[in-house]
Design brief:
about 190 residues, alpha/beta, seven-stranded mixed β-sheet, 7 strands, about 25% strand
Length: about 190
């Protein structure tokens, strides 16, 4: 073990430090994590279709992330003739989606109710090449739902987490939106 020479030139100190097996206790460089979820923008068409759902001109609108995961874009829309079965057919079992749907139903006393649903579709069946990537993709669904809701100017909607097709079944949606004690006319749902 050599006793350090404090009168060494700066160049000599660097040379000795590079040859030394002992690592310097200097500041470590921070690595950029490529796996962090970045904020995304919302395509204006998404807001336009949301307004149509809110005004009862569309039954629902489905949104997704583009391939680069930088923007939320419109995936598809449905007219008034669509129902929850049509919605289920359009949802992939291996991708994240967000749905805004207008749900109209009648009570047994013939009074009418309308609710706007915001469904975060993050199926349990999502699988990627690694566990870490699977978790990252599922996190996208939760993380970006707030960004999408913010783009809709915070309008009142009932938030529903959809992890399985039964979560967006007609009766389960109805249970999620109905008030305690309401007597629902089940035949009127999605009509």
């Amino acid at each position: 073990f050599r006793k350090p020479n404090f009168n060494m030139s700066e160049e000599k100190k660097e040379e000795v430090q590079q040859q030394s097996p002992i690592k310097s206790k200097g500041k470590k460089k921070k690595k950029k994590n490529k796996n962090l979820i970045q904020d995304v923008e919302v395509d204006p068409l998404c807001v336009e279709k949301f307004d149509l759902v809110y005004a009862d001109k569309l039954r629902y609108a489905i949104y997704k992330l583009n391939e680069e995961e930088t923007k939320i874009v419109l995936d598809s829309t449905a007219t008034e003739s669509s129902n929850s079965d049509t919605l289920k057919e359009q949802l992939p079992d291996n991708e994240v989606r967000w749905i805004v749907a207008s749900l109209s139903y009648n009570l047994t006393d013939k009074s009418h109710r309308k609710k706007i649903l915001f469904i975060a579709w993050v199926p349990d069946t999502i699988k990627r090449s690694t566990f870490k990537e699977t978790i990252r993709v599922k996190s996208l669904g939760i993380f970006h739902q707030g960004r999408l809701h913010q783009a809709f100017n915070g309008k009142s909607m009932k938030l529903i987490q959809g992890n399985d097709y039964c979560d967006i079944d007609t009766k389960n949606l109805l249970l999620a939106v109905s008030s305690f004690g309401e007597q629902i006319d089940f035949d009127s749902l999605w009509k």
